[in-house]
Specification:
Order of helices and strands: HHHH
Number of helices: 4
Distance between the termini: 13 Å
Low-confidence stretches: none
Number of strands: 0
Number of domains: 1
Structural class: mainly alpha
Shape: elongated
Strand content: under 5%
Radius of gyration: 18 Å
């Protein structure tokens, strides 16, 4: 498994753990009110589970599992994929700060960074998505 996929999957699992923990705290708060400000965790819960866990897991597994063809034994441009991973995580952290009220002005740039991260990953995988011409397309 490529290093980028290992790092991305580990980060996704970390976001999963944090997102589920925030969700559990919110459920506990519904049953036994803990603090009125507890609902500030709801945007973090959603952001961590949707973008931190699901999207990042998809990014990391896609980079790993997309086929490598005999004509191009590499996985494309790894710098683009690393930039996508970094930009995605930076945007998640910026949106977390925005939801806590620390940096409210970064919401739009952070969402645009997420779109840019998706575009960078697509650019790094683009050449690996092509039909087979012979019968043997994969490098084993």
């Amino acid at each position: 498994m490529p290093r980028l996929s290992v790092v991305g999957i580990r980060l996704a699992l970390l976001y999963f753990l944090l997102g589920i923990s925030f969700g559990a705290l919110l459920l506990i708060h519904k049953a036994m009110p803990l603090h009125p400000a507890m609902w500030i965790l709801l945007p973090l819960h959603m952001e961590f589970l949707l973008y931190g866990w699901v999207v990042q897991l998809v990014f990391s597994v896609a980079y790993w599992i997309f086929p490598r063809f005999l004509s191009e034994p590499k996985r494309g441009n790894p710098a683009l994929a690393w930039a996508a991973l970094g930009l995605l995580n930076l945007s998640i952290l910026a949106l977390s700060a925005a939801s806590l009220g620390v940096l409210p002005a970064v919401q739009l740039p952070a969402r645009l960074a997420q779109v840019a991260a998706a575009a960078l990953l697509a650019a790094s995988l683009w050449r690996r998505a092509k039909p087979t011409e012979t019968g043997v397309a994969y490098k084993r």
